[in-house]
Amino acid sequence: MRILSFSAALWALIAVGFAEAQQPPASSYGANVSRYNIAVVDISYIFKNHQRFKAQMDTMKQDVEATEKVLMQERQAIAKLGEQLKQLKPGTPDYKNLDEQIAKQKAEFNLKASKQRKDFLEREAKIYFQTYLEVRDSVKLYAQHHNVGLVIRFNGDEVDPNRREDVLRAINQPIVFQNSIDITADVLQDLNRTARSPRAQQPGRRAQNQIPGPAAIRR
Asked: Mean pLDDT of all residues in the chain?
């Protein structure tokens, strides 16, 4: 019998999302946003350091692990029935009844595991989407306050020349150069100001400047 384990692929993806970001040079900060009326923002970095998002994903990870523990117990119970079946003589009524019981439990187990995997994937998608909406609204408020006409997504992580995926990301990135128009720190500060996770810490990737962010507009 094959157990439908869903945490391996799901949490491998999440682990990638929480990889440590590299610190860019100080010149990459958004001092020239008002001068050029254009900005860039590192959405991936914001997701990695968004306190509420990280807390929600940690909670879901705990729920996944608890669910898998229950599923493992059910799987072991079915396996024990399979061992009992081996002790019976094929063709006998007892063998037939136990064989049917095992088949029924296997089907119910696979259905239950599949449904729970789907539920967790949908839950994950909702968390990502809600966080994206928060990021989008924060960027919008910042842009409106600073008269920014265009905000472009970019990735500020350093490139490891020994990692193929890093090199390909750098080659395919549309932003080749940006002159101090990175507003990621202000957007992240605004988002984390209302975060409720006591375990999360404010990242130190970018130093804050004196340009008021969206949260300052709301006050």
From this structure: 81
Q: What is the pLDDT of residue 34?
A: 87
Task: Convert the pLDDT of each residue in 152-191 to its tens digit.
Answer: 999 988 889 899 998 998 898 888 888 999 999 999 999 9
Question: DSSP assignment of 82-142, as one string?
Answer: HHHHHTSPTTSHHHHHHHHHHHHHHHHHHHHHHHHHHHHHHHHHHHHHHHHHHHHHHHHHH
CATH superfamily placement of domain 22-210: Skp domain (3.30.910.20)
